[in-house]
Amino acid sequence: MRPQMKASCKLLPLLLLFAPVASYAVNVPIPIEGATLNVSLQLQTQFLVNEAGTPDGTNPSYDAFVRRSRVLINGDMNQNFSYLVQIDNPNFGKFGNFTGRAIVQDAWIGWAPTGIKGGTVVYIDAGILLMPISHHLLESTTNFITADAQIDAFRFPGSVFPAFRDTGVQVRGWALDKKIGFRGGIYEGYAPIAQAAGGCASGGTGCITPKRNPALGGFVNFDILGSEEGAWLYGAYKWGREPVLSVGVAANYQSLVLKNAFGSLTDQRLLAPDLYLNLPVTEQAELVSEVTLYLNGNGTGSANTGTGVSASLGYRFGFIAPYVAYDYFQSSGCDAGSLSPGQLTSCNATVDTADSRNFKAGVNFFFNKNLNHINVEFSDNHGQSAYGPSSITAATAGYVPTSLDPLTATGPRRPFTSSLANVAFKSLLVHWNVLF
User: Fold this and answer.
1) Is 153 in contact with 101 (CB distance < 8 Å)?
2) Which of 87, 164, 240, 282 is most buried by its number of CB atoms within 10 A?
3) pTM over the 0.70 mark
């Protein structure tokens, strides 16, 4: 199994040959005074090898698919209104699954009463919005330290928010000469439609969000050195000359939207303080690092209640940027003093079943900054992970790999589970991003 994983690395030089050398932007002139229209295309192709990822769990699985294929239309209508519409066809062909089709992933209009330019700008946005989960999740998908977003340290049970978007109304902007960035508002959040059919009976019995309370979320970023404000999204690499040091905090809350291990309604809570650093060393080199602490509250006895840490460190010299990253999640233990014997048994059977200890190391090859680059990334996936056998499910791939060795010499192989009692599995990702 391990030699076959190493053999797949021989494909890397061939894959790197297909990288283009330039990317271009498209601005479309329109006959409306003061209005602008920009059209961008983003294509991210991935080649992914997962150890023990085949149905029988004895060989690596190989997948070539389109992680993101996006058309982005954005601009300003005048000095007070901005708009953005983004269409995406995510994960097309992953695990041989071609059933997905394009969706409208982002669609919002923003009104800035005092203008869209300057050191202090306040927008009121409405539409399909990016959830304010953390600084890291508010970064452009073209400009992470790692190949893709680090999503193993925080939890929204049920995965009801596609690409971490939600409908709502928010206030967004920056202040004090771009030294503070902020966004936050009211969002649709969880709703009874997220439950299995019949789970919400007539009269409200069994329903989550019985009062249909909306979700609340917000993020504030304090720029201690330099500034990274002034745009819709943040980015990891700056290609600048001035250092940037920021401290941020995000919070998300919705009342009575989940059920704990004992079937009782509970709130969803997430608090995420973070630290971001971009330190130019020379005009051709920069060190980039970010660390986020996630405090997840999803009910007593839940495998998704606990503490998460997401950290990454990259160093770019010229067009090459090696990096390392780590994602950690540990569920909260059971309080024997406050639970009945039956509840304690249920709690102990649930917690520690979805913990994460995931390490990444890779190299980013920049052909045209973040507009055109290739990541080659190795991962060691232990527990729940966005890569490895953990990512292969009956819903996404049509099978669960029997990645675990038999318990006895003559016993059958076992389906993968996310318990840390199991061994870690490796993966290899080649990620090619082009934006023009």
Assistant:
1) no
2) 164
3) yes
